[in-house]
């Protein structure tokens, strides 16, 4: 179906090897921690400069006091318009003591590049930009029109993305969208991800006393820490089932087509176990049942816990306060505001109505159907590039808050294709985040092939 | 019964007003945080120098690599020998951001002196030493022999006190012991405390993964934080009852004499509520039932909790590890090693056998009976000084690990008498620890009267 001259592209890329890595290290050297508001303006400037230098007409998109999103456009030869999405912000690097090299000093060890954000998702910015530069150098123009939006608030739940998408809807029109990064599996199969879970992120604060007390008064003073622990224990069974009444009301069974896609996935259980050093999946699951649980189970996760004395040695204190951070990952049709209301009602019913709830993020799940023609076209291109059948994930485990807004404001089909260079051991959101350098070169090749193929009839 | 010339003592003290405060500020300016091993050697030197300057023959007692305990002796006129006990170490000052003035810069505000350790228990070192200096200045000798042991590891559970007491038993012989600090109530009644609870301090560490994970994998990866929360929730009912099987086996009912002592205590419930800013005691208790619970209920307290991301904003992480620090306050006949074994067995039974338990402190409760002649003599002296009936606490809420060792190695009757200057609002172990300066002067007077009275027939 396509007449892309990959030979010529390969030759060019070989002659310019190392360009993507150089670009990536430059991106990683600039901290851009949205949760702590560190380096965001500097990073937006760096990204805009890189796009301009590569031939994009650019502008910064700001709405409701958001961090600036960088928007760039290059008009191409064919009528096809592709919207690319990435984010330039990263997760906080803590706990720092677990990093083997400083998180913002990109470091190569054993063929891997280590830095905060290298996998999530600065590598994809680097590989897409390197591919675009290569095509422009080779052909003097792009095969398709590319519109590229790179936001700075993804890791804090894309809190202003909807306002940006509403204000700049005209810039985001396209034939289809490619979000941030899927990858090639170790088996060489291209991964396609057709949706992402929703998110509700809350902080629970329990107050017991105005000030910490000597724990000798523990027989008679209220304990914030015990209150929080006992309230948390009512939220979830030891096997992971969420016990908030009504939590599963909107959850639908997966379709046969979705189950078939999961069944066709390769087994990555051992890779998971190696990456995270554990022995058994939840409930001893494996195979298709494990994949169904991962794909379609909504969760209540404890992301943080803090109370009292946490240093070395002992301190016999009855802490005044206790705090938990929870993230709920939601599946299609679960409404985060409804889940929040049910959480509040449940805590009241259980006698914990005085625990304060602060909600940070609300996001609905979103999914493009397997049958969508844009999905099928990307699938065909990816399979032609790889010479292997794609692995399709109907609903990814993470959350891409932009999906809900793109659906509502622009209405595009979209998915993740393997333009990133992350892998199963990338430790996104964790210390020692890394990519394999070999994956970086292949991702550049794939992006070249993808953009070129979309320009063919 | 006594012919102590309080008039003469008062006059002397008035002429030397401020001496105790000056001494106390000097003691508080020197950090001495045993849990963090900060300033311990310097503090031991300071205490020994102060004792030497006041006429004590001194030595440092070290056993098993302990922090040096300072021992001093002055032989007195009568045959009565009194053993005094204090500690020069303090609790860690964290959380620092809640202090209104730096914890090791003693600061006077509104007639109160603020500093870490000022109430627990550097004030008592200052008031005892000031009283001894006054009696020596007035009479050229002490009315009784005073042996004084000031250790440096009380706030970490007096981990080497038993080794010190065993090695130096000959130095600790006496007719009775006065431990660290009871006080006068706001009603002017002298408080006597005849015992202290035991302690078992443990840290629980739950491991789920080798490294933190993205919480998008929460449906299938084991969660250390949930495991810890759910394990903790099996330890204690929401109303405070400890659910470890056999935990209460050794607990005895209080005697009628003990209940009578509790019934004769003044009501301090409102002071408690003001000091700690809360509305209701546990289970809505008040009056005698509240006092019985405080005096005789063993507890399981959460002193610290830590897992995952605890900074500002959000981080969607599935934490690799989770930690809790627990202190169990025990009553007479509960054996901390037995309780530890029962805790371990309970966690195994509940399916949490893989949670690691590190035990820091073991200490049995100890109590001198109300009927003991030394108790009755101190009670008579304190009531004569105050002109009011004493308030007797048969078993204090805190823990004095030395009591078990003194009982075992020396066999002395002992109690706490009001020589300290703390009060209900002192916030021991908490930020903004403080004493009222007016209480300091009275404590010096009382210590003079006490030592002088014990020298009378």
UniProtKB/TrEMBL annotation, chains A, B:
Gene Ontology CC annotations of this record: cytosol
Keywords: Hydrolase, Metal-binding, Protease
Taxonomic superkingdom: Bacteria
One annotated GO molecular function: metal ion binding
Stretches assigned to the Peptidase M20 dimerisation domain: 195-349
Cytoplasm listed as a keyword: no
Pfam families documented for this protein: M20_dimer, Peptidase_M20
Signal peptide (UniProt feature, chain positions): none
Alphabetical list of InterPro entries matching this protein: Cyt/Met_Dipeptidase, Peptidase_M20, Peptidase_M20_dimer
One GO BP: lysine biosynthetic process via diaminopimelate
Coiled coil regions, renumbered to chain: none
PANTHER family: BETA-ALA-HIS DIPEPTIDASE, DI- AND TRIPEPTIDASE DUG2-RELATED
Protein name: Acetylornithine deacetylase/succinyl-diaminopimelate desuccinylase-like protein
The organism of origin for this protein: Thermosporothrix hazakensis
């Amino acid at each position: 179906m396509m007449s892309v001259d990959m030979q010529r592209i390969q030759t060019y890329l070989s002659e310019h090897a190392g360009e993507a890595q150089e670009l990536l290290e430059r991106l990683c050297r600039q901290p851009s921690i949205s949760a702590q508001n560190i380096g965001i303006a500097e990073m937006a400037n760096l990204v805009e400069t890189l796009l301009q230098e590569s031939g994009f007409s650019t502008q910064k998109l700001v709405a409701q006091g958001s961090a600036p999103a960088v928007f760039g456009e290059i008009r191409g030869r064919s009528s096809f318009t592709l919207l690319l999405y990435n984010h330039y912000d990263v997760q906080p690097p803590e706990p720092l003591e677990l990093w083997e090299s400083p998180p913002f000093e990109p470091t190569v060890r054993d063929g891997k590049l280590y830095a905060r954000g290298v996998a999530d998702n600065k590598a994809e910015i680097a590989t897409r930009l390197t591919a675009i530069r290569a095509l422009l150098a080779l052909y003097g123009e792009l095969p398709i029109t590319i519109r590229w939006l790179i936001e700075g608030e993804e890791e804090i739940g894309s809190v202003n993305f909807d306002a940006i998408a509403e204000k700049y809807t005209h810039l985001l029109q396209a034939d289809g969208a490619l979000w941030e990064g899927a990858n090639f599996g170790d088996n060489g199969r291209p991964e396609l991800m057709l949706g992402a879970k929703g998110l509700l992120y809350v902080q629970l604060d329990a107050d017991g006393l105005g000030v910490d007390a000597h724990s000798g008064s523990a027989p008679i003073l209220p304990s914030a820490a015990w209150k929080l622990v006992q309230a948390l224990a009512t939220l979830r069974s030891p096997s992971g089932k969420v016990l908030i009444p009504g939590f599963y009301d909107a959850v639908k069974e997966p379709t046969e087509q979705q189950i078939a896609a999961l069944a066709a996935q390769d087994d990555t259980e051992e890779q998971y176990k190696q990456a995270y050093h554990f022995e058994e999946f939840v409930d001893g699951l494996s195979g298709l049942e494990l994949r169904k649980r991962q794909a379609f189970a909504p969760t209540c996760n404890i992301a943080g816990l803090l109370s009292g004395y946490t240093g070395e040695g002992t301190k016999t204190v009855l802490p005044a306060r206790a705090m938990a951070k929870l993230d709920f990952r939601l599946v299609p049709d679960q409404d985060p505001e409804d889940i929040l209301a049910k959480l509040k009602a449940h805590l009241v019913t259980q006698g914990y109505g005085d625990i304060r709830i602060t909600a940070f993020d609300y996001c609905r799940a979103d999914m493009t159907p397997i049958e969508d023609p844009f999905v099928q076209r990307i699938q065909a291109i990816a399979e032609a590039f790889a010479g292997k059948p794609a692995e399709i994930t109907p609903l990814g485990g993470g959350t891409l808050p932009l999906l809900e807004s793109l659906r509502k404001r622009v209405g595009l089909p979209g998915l993740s294709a393997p333009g990133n260079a992350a892998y199963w051991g990338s430790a996104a959101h964790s210390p020692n985040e890394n990519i394999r350098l070999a994956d970086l070169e292949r991702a550049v090749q794939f992006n070249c092939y993808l953009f070129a193929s979309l320009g063919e009839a």
